[in-house]
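Researcher: We are triaging several targets before committing to wet-lab work. For this one, the compound of interest is adenosine-5'-diphosphate. I'm pasting the protein sequence and the ligand SMILES. What I need is the predicted three-dimensional arrangement of the protein with the ligand bound, expressed as structure tokens, so it can go straight into our comparison scripts without reformatting.
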Amino acid sequence: MKLIYTGKTKNVYAVEDGNYLLKFKDDVTGENGVFDPGANTVGLTIEGAGRAGLKLTKHFFEVIKEKGIPTHYIDANIEEATMKVKAATVFGKGLEVICRYRGVGSFLKRYGGYVTEGQPLDAFVEVTLKDDGRQDPPITVDALEMLGILSKAEYEIIKDLTRKIAAIVKEELEKKSIELYDIKFEFGRDNCSGEVLLIDEISGGNMRAYKDGKYIEPLLLERLMLA
Ligand SMILES: Nc1ncnc2c1ncn2[C@@H]1O[C@H](COP(=O)(O)OP(=O)(O)O)[C@@H](O)[C@H]1O
Ligand SMILES: [Mg+2]
């Protein structure tokens, strides 16, 4: 097994069979020792955070795969905090695709002159570049095409998949009376087939979830969802 990437919260290994192994670490993003899923730096270590994130990721990927959405998921080993996935190549240097049901977070920060906090949004999709040094800037479809990151046709495929996957996660959360405000995904091209796949993870750190109008932090979300 060869370490090919050291991420903020996971390490990526290449396995002999051509697949990748994602190792979920207990490192979480944040600033000054405070857990913040949106932060671009590792802020602290929480015992069991890796395994908790993997459990929720496993749950969502199994539901999503069941519904016929192409994903990188193969299997997971909770004890070892590892997930076996199909090897993929990200678009450009990596993108995050966000689906918004309510105007909060960076959307509210940017467009606060036009939306009120928590205003309902109709599964609005937007793309940001994974670029920690530039605070993950939002990017338009024209810029994605011009910079050779995605074609317009690929953008449409990803947008459609994003809406479908977000709706599945939203429905799962609703079973526990939890409301999904927004969620971010990553996509890549399957190294073998070239197919566009949902990759990475889907855990508490990838979404904003609320119960009775109160924000549910990632570790609590994992406990509520898998109880
Ligand atoms: N199936 C896959 N193939 C290739 N790369 C992947 C796959 N799934 C996830 N990744 C990448 O692996 C990395 C996971 O580690 P993470 O700690 O989340 O990194 P980051 O700090 O870049 O967010 C991410 O960069 C993600 O894009
Ligand atoms: Mg990540």
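Researcher: Any quick observations?
Model: The pocket of magnesium ion (ligand 2) is lined by residues 7-9 (CB under 6 Å).
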